[in-house]
Amino acid sequence: MEESEYESVLCVKPEVHVYRIPPRANNRGYRASEWQLAQPWWSGRLRITAKGQVAYIKLEDRTSGELFAQAPVDQFPGTAVESVTDSSRYFVVRIEDGNGRRAFIGIGFGDRGDAFDFNVALQDHFKWVKQQSEFAKQAQNPDEGPKLDLGFKEGQTIKINIANMRKKEAAPGTPRTRPASTGGLNLLPPPPGSKTSTLIPPPGEQLSFGGSAAQPAVISVSGGATEPWPQSKPAATTTADIWGDFTKSTGSSSSNQSQPGTGWVQF
């Protein structure tokens, strides 16, 4: 079975009023105020159905469902359904019977929301009809459809901003820090609290305190490392020759002599 044989329901309103309307004398449009709104000709239920591309406005008895009148709509807005100029709740509908006879009647809704739904149902149907027609044309002639051209036109250029991708340069006049030099030895004073020797003996000589030789003096270099003082070949001298007679006691008392193992020289 073809799709046009199926009938779908678009909108149902339980109450609608039908009015006899006078012929339109000029092109200024219909006015609901000219109708006898207090005395409707008929009242019942309204249904909008769709069969293929055609919509049908059906006026039915609300109890038995008997058809009172039917208005086929093939275009909206159009002559089949027109709005009045003085209200949004009333419309003029062209009804037809099966014998080709036509007549114009007025319909009205007691609620503005029902009138809005009636209008939107017809708009949505014919919007769908238009889309289906465009899809059918594109399927028959795919080469005639709009094509997306992404190529550059003659003389057209493109500009790319990559400023955010670069690191910001320092402002003019801002001093820049330079890395510390790694070449050579920078003699710096020892940090506070460090234990470094302050006695630097002559080359080839060592200091003696209480018979024990002192360790070679050290110097500080960059990075906190220490390096021993360059030592030359020791001379053939003894500790007693360096200090002379100061190592001997000048008195007879044994208390003036240096105590062994204390590391101090008594004078």
From TrEMBL:
SUPFAM superfamilies to which the protein is assigned, alphabetical: PH domain-like
Coiled-coil annotated spans: none
Segments for region (Disordered): 166-206, 222-267
Main location as per UniProt: membrane
Subcellular locations according to the entry: Cytoplasmic vesicle, Clathrin-coated vesicle membrane
Low complexity biased stretches: 249-267
GO aspect biological process, one term: protein transport
Domain NECAP PHear: 6-162
Cellular component terms (Gene Ontology): clathrin vesicle coat
Keywords from the named record: Cytoplasmic vesicle, Endocytosis, Protein transport, Transport
Purpose of the protein: Involved in endocytosis.
Similarity field: Belongs to the NECAP family.
Protein name from the UniProt record: Adaptin ear-binding coat-associated protein 2
